[in-house]
Design brief:
By secondary structure, the chain is an alpha/beta fold. The chain has three domains: about 5-135, Tetrapyrrole methylase, N-terminal domain (Cobalt-precorrin-4 Transmethylase, domain 1); about 140-245, Tetrapyrrole methylase, C-terminal domain (Methyltransferase, Cobalt-precorrin-4 Transmethylase, Domain 2); about 250-305. It has twelve helices and ten strands. It has helices spanning about 10-20, 45-50, 60-70, 85-95, 115-125, 140-145, 165-170, 190-200, 225-230, 250-270, 275-285, 290-305; strands spanning about 25-30, 55, 75-80, 100-105, 130-135, 155-160, 180-185, 205-210, 220-225, 240-245. The strands form two sheets. It has a five-stranded parallel β-sheet with strand order 3-2-4-1-5, sandwiched between helices. A five-stranded mixed β-sheet has the order 6-7-10-8-9, with helices on one face. Helix 4 (about 85-95) packs across helix 5. The radius of gyration is 25 Å and the shape is elongated. Bound molecules: S-adenosylmethionine (SAM). S-adenosylmethionine binds next to helix 6, strand 7, strand 8 and strand 10.
Length: about 300
C-alpha cells in the first residue's frame, strides 16, 4: 500500500512564484510533455500552457486529452511531419501579432525524433523568440537509470527500417566509444535486437528501458548475447515502447580482441574446432595458437552454458 501523501498540494503555493516569472509575448514555447505518467510535467510548463493563446501539436486528440488532465482547454493547431513548413508560416503570423504559442509533440521533447525542428528553424529565421521549457525525454530518462558509466552518449534515435540500411548504420557505429541510444517501435524490437547482436561484440552490455514512467515499466541490463532470450522470455516484451542503450566500444585493443572472438564463435558453430581457429586466424590476423586456446575455452564454456 502507498504511504499517505505528506501534503499532496505542496506545489500549489509555488505556483504563485511560477506565475510571477517572465513569459514573454510573441514567443514560441517549445514545451516537453510526459512520456507516460501525466504527472511528469514541470510547473513552468503547466503555467505556460495555461497562458498561451494556442498550442501547436502533433495530434490534436492526444494533446486535447493531455490538457484536459490539467483542467485546460486551448485552441489546438495540428503541426505534424507532413505540414511543418506550411504551419510554420501560420504560427509566424500569429507570433508577429504578439501571441504566445506552445509547441508540443505527442510525448516528450518536441524535435527529438519528433516533429518540431522545421517550425523552430522557421520561427527563429523570422527573428522571433523561441523559448525551451525542458522536461521529459525518453532517451535521457533511460540513460539516467541505465547505470552505464560513460561520460559520452550518442543519440541514434530510430534506425532505418530496411535491413541493409540498418546493418550499414550499425557498422558505422561499431567503433564509437560513447553509449549508443536507440529508439524503437514495439513491432520491430526482435529485428533490432538481432541486428545489434550481429553487429556488435556479444559481451557489450545492453539496457532495455521499456514503458518508462508507466505501470509496467521495466529496465533490464544484460550482455548483448542474452538480449534476444530476454525479449523472448515474456510475450509482453513484444509490446510497449522501448529505448535501447548499448555500451560503447572498449579501447581498440579490446575491441580487436572482441572481434576475433565474435568471428571465432560464428565459425565454431559451423566447423570443427581446429578448422575454426585456423580460419579465424586468417580472417582476423590473430595468432592461430591463441585462437585455438580460446576456442577450447569457448567450447568448454558452451558445454556448461549453451551459447545462445
Ligand atoms: N520526443 C520523444 C522524446 O523526447 O523522447 C520521443 C518520441 S519518438 C516518436 C517515440 C519513441 O520514444 C518510442 O518509439 C520509444 O523508442 C521512445 N519512448 C517514448 N516514450 C517512451 C517510454 N515511456 N518508455 C520507453 N521508450 C519511450
Amino acid at each position: 500500500m502507498n504511504p499517505a501523501p505528506p501534503n499532496a498540494l505542496v506545489a500549489l503555493p509555488l505556483m504563485d512564484e511560477v506565475a510571477r516569472q517572465t513569459y514573454p509575448a510573441a514567443t514560441l514555447y517549445v514545451l516537453a510533455t510526459p512520456i507516460g505518467n501525466f504527472a511528469d510535467i514541470t510547473l513552468r510548463a503547466l503555467h505556460a500552457l495555461a497562458l498561451v493563446d494556442a498550442v501547436a501539436c502533433e495530434d490534436t486528440r492526444n494533446t486535447g486529452h493531455l490538457l484536459s488532465h490539467y483542467g485546460l482547454s486551448k485552441h489546438l493547431i495540428a503541426a505534424h511531419q507532413h505540414n511543418e513548413r506550411a504551419v510554420a508560416e501560420k504560427l509566424i503570423a500569429r507570433l508577429q501579432a504578439g501571441e504566445r504559442i506552445a509547441l508540443v509533440s505527442d510525448a516528450g521533447t518536441p524535435a527529438v525524433s519528433d516533429p518540431g525542428a522545421r517550425i523552430v528553424d522557421a520561427v527563429r529565421a523570422a527573428g522571433l523568440r523561441v523559448l525551451p521549457l525542458p522536461g521529459p525525454s525518453a532517451a535521457i530518462a533511460a540513460l539516467s537509470a541505465s547505470g552505464l558509466v560513460c561520460d559520452q552518449f550518442h543519440f541514434v534515435g530510430f534506425l532505418p527500417a530496411r535491413a541493409s540500411a540498418r546493418a550499414l548504420a550499425l557498422q558505422q557505429l561499431r567503433a564509437a566509444a560513447a553509449t549508443l541510444i536507440f529508439y524503437e517501435a514495439p513491432h520491430r524490437i526482435n529485428e533490432t535486437v538481432d541486428a545489434l547482436a550481429a553487429a556488435f561484440c556479444p559481451r557489450r552490455q545492453i539496457v532495455f528501458a521499456r514503458e518508462l514512467t508507466k505501470l509496467f515499466e521495466e529496465i533490464h541490463r544484460c550482455p548483448l548475447s542474452d538480449a534476444a532470450a530476454w525479449v523472448a522470455a515474456d510475450t509482453h516484451r513484444q509490446k510497449g515502447e522501448y529505448v535501447l542503450l548499448l555500451e560503447g566500444a572498449p579501447p581498440a585493443a579490446d575491441e580487436d580482441d572482441a572481434e576475433a572472438e565474435r568471428v571465432l564463435r560464428i565459425l565454431l558453430a559451423e566447423c570443427p574446432l581446429k578448422q575454426a581457429a585456423a580460419l579465424a586466424a586468417q580472417i582476423t590476423g590473430h595468432k592461430k595458437n591463441a585462437l585455438y586456446e580460446r576456442a577450447l575455452r569457448l567450447k568448454a564454456e558452451s558445454e556448461q552454458t549453451p551459447i545462445n
